[in-house]
Design goal:
With 231 residues, the protein is of the alpha/beta class. It is built from 7 helices and 9 strands; from the N terminus they run ββαβαββαβααββαβα.
């Protein structure tokens, strides 16, 4: 199994729009929105903050996707949760940590401490027999992919990326699947669409990278079993 580093994303604390100077929203108990056991976002968040799993309050909401956390927090002015910065939208407020606001710049320079890498895992031995997978991996390393990554609010970690050279002939494989983290799912969907469009424009051939979820744990399991590729 081989890994490539795709991007860095902060696990931003998100609060309901009713955020005030102290606490979230109006007075009263704070509603905590947590991710489910096995979530890569949850594991990274706990590790970064030095929290042990057995220290968690099991009575709080445990949601199984990034979008569910965002929607839950957005609908509750007393709520607080965490999600990748690229998934935070105008329905919630991202909170500062140690006085530092989460932005692409503060994540890149390390001043915003709550950040983690996104990695893509795949079976390297499959590249020789799966030309679509090979092309997609090359695309992910390209300048075009880094532009998409930055546009979606993530932080590119590939410097001086080369331009993507599109194939000049039809590919023998026309469909692969990517499963894993729901935090990186929206980004992977954008990358897959851009890649497919470039291949079709160059060759006239329709190819598809199907993006599914399941969480980081599922992605790692699939990668270990040789399924293609995982995020």
């Amino acid at each position: 199994m081989k890994k490539i580093l795709m991007a860095i994303a902060s696990a931003a604390l998100a609060c309901g729009i009713g955020f005030a100077a102290v606490g979230c929203g109006s007075n009263g108990d704070i509603s905590v929105y947590n991710r489910e056991d096995g979530s890569g976002t949850r594991d990274a968040f706990l590790e970064l903050l030095g929290i042990e799993s057995d220290e968690l309050n099991t009575g709080v909401a445990q949601l199984n996707s990034t979008s569910a956390v965002i929607q839950g927090v957005a609908g509750d002015e007393k709520a607080i949760g965490y999600a990748s910065l690229g998934s935070v939208d105008s329905t919630v407020k991202a909170l500062s940590v140690d006085g530092v606001t989460p932005t692409e710049e503060t994540v890149a320079d390390g001043s915003y401490k709550v950040s983690r890498p996104f990695e893509l895992m795949y079976d390297e031995t499959a590249l020789a027999e799966n030309d679509l997978l090979s092309e997609f991996i090359e695309y992910l390393k390209s300048a075009e992919a880094q532009t998409v990554i930055a546009a979606e609010g993530y932080v590119s970690v590939v410097e001086n990326a080369p331009a993507y050279t599109v194939p000049t002939a039809d590919l023998s494989v026309t469909e692969i699947e990517a499963s894993g983290s729901t935090s990186v799912g929206p980004l992977m969907t954008k990358l897959a669409a851009d890649f497919s469009a470039k291949v079709e424009e160059a060759t006239g051939q329709e190819v598809q990278v199907t993006v599914s979820g399941g969480g980081s744990g599922q992605g790692i399991k699939d990668a270990n079993e040789g399924k293609l590729p995982r995020k």
